[in-house]
Amino acid sequence: MEILIISGLSGAGKSKAASFLEDMGFYIVDNMPAAMILKFAEFCAGGAGRYDRVALVYDVRTANSLAEFFDVLEKLKTMGGVCRLLFLEAAPDVIIKRYKETRRRHPLRERADSLEAAVQLEREMMSPVRDRADFIIDTSRISTAQLRGELLQRFGEAGEKGGMTVNVISFGFKYGLPMEADLVFDVRFMPNPFYIEELRCQTGLDQSVADYVFGFRQTKDYMDRLTELLTFSLPLYAEEGKTGLVIAVGCTGGQHRSVAVAHALTGIIRRQGYVVTETHRDMSRGT
């Protein structure tokens, strides 16, 4: 079992970090008191694999007894799993600016004369937690996409290429464009198997149809250029922070050419290391 404690300064990005980690497969619990962390960890350990990756948010709202929290940390590290502490921080002026923009109330505002004093008080209170951290991320000058990239690099599992899932959809233009598509490729220029009698009732998943579609030079050249485009652009989408990308490939009826190309494209993208799904929206309409 892997337990990640997310702590840090208010306004430094703990909530965003928790959301990104949830996308990466962590089970998230926010604002958990130290006294409950150990019991919750024991519960997760007996969950038969349902809670293999857990992230617990611990912040100044529950930091009444740091000694108790540190004692819990030591016990967690002897439970046989992996326990790490992530601390997020940002410069005081950045945190103050974020609070002014969001108009949220700092959790220590009632204990300080000003927002600036509250930020400084929290920094002092959380300093011992920072000193125990396994990872420290300063979010002062990074974007949310860059924060996601940092978390993915440190806590992502093998095979998570940028944490982005790609869905390849084949469709027929006669039935309309898929509304969820990010990228649309039109393959109606390719020779149409529909006009070959023995292929008409088959689909692009049948080998004979695929052999026909990819037996033409223009199809092979197109796939080479499309592969080059995606090899260049997919890492950029992932770097920007996109968690899901939908690529739609269309022909006239969505039965032959688009299906064959979408199926081949799925294999190409998978070999590049991305998690990819394949959907053929209109394939059965013409059969």
Topology, pairings included?
Blueprint: E1 2-8, H1 14-23, E2 27-29, H2 34-45, E3 53-57, H3 66-76, E4 82-89, H4 92-102, H5 115-132, E5 135-138, H6 144-155, E6 165-172, E7 183-186, H7 207-213, H8 217-240, E8 244-251, H9 257-271, E9 275-280
Parallel strand pairs: 1-3, 1-4, 2-3, 4-5, 6-8, 6-9, 7-8
Compute the average pLDDT. 89
* Distance separating the two termini: 48 Å
Q: How many distinct helices?
A: 9
**Strand segment tally:** 9
State the share of residues found in helices, binned by percent: 40-55%
Strand content: 15-25%
- Give me the strand/helix succession: EHEHEHEHHEHEEHHEHE
CATH overall fold name of the largest domain: Rossmann fold
Low-pLDDT stretches are none
Q: Name the shape in a single word.
A: elongated
What is the CATH architecture assignment of the largest domain? Answer: 3-Layer(aba) Sandwich
- Per CATH, the superfamily of the largest domain is P-loop containing nucleotide triphosphate hydrolases
Structural commentary:
It is a single chain. α2 (34-45) runs parallel beside α3. With 287 residues, this protein is of the alpha/beta class. It has a 5-stranded parallel sheet with strand order 2-3-1-4-5, sandwiched between helices. It has a 4-stranded parallel sheet with strand order 7-8-6-9, covered by helices on one side. The two termini are 48 Å apart. The longest helix has 24 residues, at 217-240. It has helices at residues 14-23, 34-45, 66-76, 92-102, 115-132, 144-155, 207-213, 217-240, 257-271; strands at residues 2-8, 27-29, 53-57, 82-89, 135-138, 165-172, 183-186, 244-251, 275-280. It folds into 2 domains: 2-155, Rossmann fold, CATH 3.40.50; 165-280, no CATH class. The protein contains 9 helices and 9 strands. The mean pLDDT is 89.
